[in-house]
């Protein structure tokens, strides 16, 4: 890798041994992927490692070394959600005890995060780009992020540039203020190697469409055609929410870090099919293909025919418009069954700043009146508690992929919440 004199000075230890180790890690990371230079990070960071899980002692020692050396990120950063909310997420005594032990380093780790540049106490969300949170990069910005659903959103919907980094690589890039240039940071790396034609007779469920795309293209870049008939050609809030959920599924069911949507996402709107590389592969998605994909999801509950005990909505975190939408849809589903309260304990997750904006609204009062709970946590971390052995239902394909939760599309999930059973 060709380094500037300033970069070589850092690597040679002229700004301290610890910063030299941080730079050496980034350089070797870049060289492993064929990078020839470092480029400046131009927007605030977002970190994936938000949880103080007790077994990660090496991480805590690393953070202590950074703090002792006085190192901080160039700009304040946001970080993924907290793992525990015993006030609003149903948990048994055993779950609470095991959760407290599992995430026993949470308070200490949050002190470490603050010491190296955490934005504020509300900066815990996987959807940092939501307007209420305020960490939304501009088109062309170079990022050092790692959270997969945030990376794919920033690349695709916002037109920023970021690779799918690992935890702590994201932090190191934001401390040095530079990242190695390769992959999705390059024009060539952003070209589509798959054409995906959506030929459905109705608007496809975002989570299932993303799942199908992710499982087919894996870590490549798809150019998606045919969504404009349902999303229009404007990136309004509804389109952004759809693409947020679709993208999270592409990133978790596969390893997609960037997708282009014809006529909608910034680069596709400007550059069209010139973004498509030579020799692309082709994938057609119709109603039957979506049904095939959905039918392939396994049921890994210990008792496959159990009644659901918990429903999770909001992985990734819901936007404010999505919260308001659920506040109407859940009561309407209950009314169709002659009920006023949910038959399955239901938890909707969103960013602390979004929840604050939701406070005092008539929609919040309407939603809470159904018995639905609001939380700021990451549902994945709740499900990863070793004592959590509940039959959980969700409309999140990401949560389904990483846990034992069963996926249902939004309409089916609403019926389950209202009836208390899976028909």
Automatic annotation (TrEMBL):
Pfam families xrefs: AcnX
Presence of the UniProt keyword Glycoprotein in the record: no
Record keywords, A-Z: Iron, Lyase
Residue ranges annotated for the Phosphomevalonate dehydratase large subunit-like domain, each copy included: 1-405
UniProt-listed InterPro entries: PMDh-L-like_dom
GO molecular function, one term: lyase activity
Keyword Lyase carried by entry: yes
PANTHER family: DUF521 DOMAIN PROTEIN (AFU_ORTHOLOGUE AFUA_6G00490) (PTHR36577:SF3)
Name of this protein: Phosphomevalonate dehydratase large subunit-like domain-containing protein
């Amino acid at each position: 890798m060709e380094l500037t004199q300033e970069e070589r000075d850092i690597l040679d230890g002229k700004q301290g041994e610890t910063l030299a180790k941080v730079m050496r890690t980034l350089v070797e990371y870049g060289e492993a992927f064929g990078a020839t230079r470092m480029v400046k990070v131009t927007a605030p960071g977002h970190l994936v490692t938000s949880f103080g899980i007790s077994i990660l002692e090496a991480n805590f020692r690393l953070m202590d070394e950074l703090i002792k050396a006085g190192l901080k990120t160039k700009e304040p950063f946001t970080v993924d959600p907290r793992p525990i909310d015993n006030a609003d997420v149903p948990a048994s005594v055993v779950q609470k005890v095991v959760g407290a032990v599992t995430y026993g380093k949470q308070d200490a780790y949050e002190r470490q995060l603050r010491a190296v540049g955490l934005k504020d106490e509300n900066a815990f969300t996987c959807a940092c780009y939501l307007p209420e949170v305020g960490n939304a990069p501009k088109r062309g910005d170079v990022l050092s992020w790692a959270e997969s659903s945030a990376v794919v959103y920033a690349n695709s919907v916002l037109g920023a540039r970021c690779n799918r980094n690992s935890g702590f690589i994201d932090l190191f890039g934001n401390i040095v203020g530079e990242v190695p240039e390769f992959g999705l940071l390059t024009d060539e790396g952003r070209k589509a190697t798959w054409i995906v034609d959506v030929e459905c007779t109705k608007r496809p469920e975002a989570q299932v469409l993303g799942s199908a795309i992710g499982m087919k293209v894996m870590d490549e870049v798809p150019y998606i055609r045919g969504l404009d008939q349902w999303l229009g050609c404007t990136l309004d809030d509804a389109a952004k929410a759809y693409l947020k959920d679709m993208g999270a599924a592409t990133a978790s069911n596969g390893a997609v870090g960037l997708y282009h949507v014809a006529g909608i996402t910034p680069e596709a709107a400007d550059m069209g099919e010139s973004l498509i590389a030579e020799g692309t592969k082709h994938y057609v998605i119709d109603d039957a293909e979506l049904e095939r994909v959905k039918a392939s999801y396994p049921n890994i509950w210990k008792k496959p025919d159990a009644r659901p005990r918990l429903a999770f909505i909001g992985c990734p975190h819901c936007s404010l418009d999505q919260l308001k939408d659920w506040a109407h849809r859940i009561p309407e589903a209950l009314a169709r069954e002659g009920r006023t309260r949910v038959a399955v304990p239901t938890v909707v997750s969103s960013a602390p700043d979004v929840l604050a904006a939701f406070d005092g609204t008539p929609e919040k009062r309407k939603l809470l009146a159904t018995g639905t709970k609001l939380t700021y946590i990451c549902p994945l971390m709740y499900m990863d508690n070793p004592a959590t052995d509940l039959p959980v239902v969700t409309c999140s394909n990401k949560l389904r992929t990483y846990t034992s939760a069963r996926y249902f599309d939004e309409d089916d999930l609403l019926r389950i919440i209202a009836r208390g059973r899976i028909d």
